[in-house]
Amino acid sequence: MYAVIKTGGKQYKVTPGETLKIETTAHDNGNIEFSDVLAVSGEAGKFEQELTGAKVLASVVSTGRGEKILVFKLKRKKQYKKMQGHRQNYVEVKINEILVNGQSFKA
To answer: Average pLDDT by consecutive 10-residue portion of the chain (107 residues)?
Structure first.
């Protein structure tokens, strides 16, 4: 059992009980509800046709910042060099439940 959700401009394949790191999103009391569900599969190779009201419920495990990414720009023979670092904020969430068509799939 898995679902494909869209958040932060990216798509994630999630299953109940899984933890994953997503871009920072607003959450209340440590709970997040993903209502932008693109696909749900109850068994291998078969997808649900009706996805109205489908949602994925998750709880926040932790927040933090990712690994540093170095961006280096160089123009040879022009004496131009620029180095810049970036660390992306993230929220680590645990998928608790997938709801679709009145059915509930839990870990």
So the answer is: 91 94 90 92 78 91 95 97 96 94 84
Say if residues 94 and 61 touch (Cβ distance below 8 Å): yes
Work out whether the CA dihedral 63, 10, 47, 52 comes out positive or negative.
positive
Which token pair is 23?
Answer: 């871009």
Kindly report the pTM of this predicted structure. Answer: 0.81
Q: What is d(CA 88, CA 14) in angstroms, rounded to the nearest whole number?
A: 21
Rounded Cα distance between 38 and 49, Å, is 11
**Assigned token pair, 24:** 């920072």
Rounded distance between C-alpha atoms, residue 60 and residue 10, angstroms: 18
